[in-house]
Amino acid sequence: MVAGAAAAGETAAMSTVCVTGAGGFIASWLVHRLLSTGRYVVHGAVRDPSDPKHAHLKALGGAGERLRLFAADMLDPAAVAAAVAGCDGVFHVASPVPTSKPADPEREVVAPAVAGTRNVLAACRDAGVRRVVFVSSVAAVAVNPKCPAGIDLDEEWWSDEDFCRTIKGWYFLSKTLAERAALAYAEETGLDVVSVCPSWVLGPLLQSTVNNSSLTLIDYLRGGGDTADDKVKNVVDVRDVADALVLAYEAPAAKGRYICRAYPMSMAEIVDTIRRFHPNHTYPTNFVKVQDERMFTSKKLQALGWKYRTAEETFKDIVESYKAAGILN
């Protein structure tokens, strides 16, 4: 049985796991989820544990007793090894996300994603870690001109590396190469690696900074104009992603890669849903149809036991979170 899993009716022993990039949007909810079970000691790997932006992690329930933050740059093998030491499992969430146009994208975005992944996996193998859950993205699935139209893409599809370079999709390329490197390492060494590919991750904020996926929605809501583009997007709640990651770690049957997407929603539908909970905001009134995103299926993950919350719950909680942070004002 994978560390952290327990048979029905059986009390699981305390397990120690590491979460890389622990202060990020997905990782923060993952740390919260792990601590809330009462069954995990968590090593949170961050660049600087003393940075005030990580205060939300220290305030989580159970953090005082079962969360330890490690200073660990993913490009520093010794620091990574220290964070992973003594762990039964590792969730590799950290990945470079460019906030502006990189001068040298291969060096600044792509190479660090792959090298950091390899450092984490090497440390896991040396430490005798039982399972690694690698957080990828549907960006590693759908950026491929050969994908036929009209089908829901599954885990067999991969983004085309040359095409990613052609369109200068450096984040897409970094996620594709890093996930391929993780699964290839597993094949070569026998290390148990499971990858999870979330779609557009939204939800309430735990951290004080706004992450890129949330910023996309916020910028749309702040657009200020009457007219806005309307396309169907693949949405998933960040808390459901955290559940999926824990499931991928705990389920003995988990293997390979899993797409994590809850439901398709057009931007017009998203705005209508948010308006119900925040009616006094100024929203676009005219929506111009543009090409929809590629659609995905999470049947494999659902067969493992994954469930997701309703869009109404997600966006109600988003509105409350954004209002509390002063974002929608």
UniProtKB/TrEMBL annotation:
Organism: Urochloa decumbens
GO MF entry, a single one: oxidoreductase activity
Domain NAD-dependent epimerase/dehydratase: residue ranges: 17-255
The name this protein goes by in its record: NAD-dependent epimerase/dehydratase domain-containing protein
One Pfam match: Epimerase
Phylogenetic placement of the source organism: Eukaryota, Viridiplantae, Streptophyta, Embryophyta, Tracheophyta
Domain of life: Eukaryota
Keyword list, A-Z: Oxidoreductase
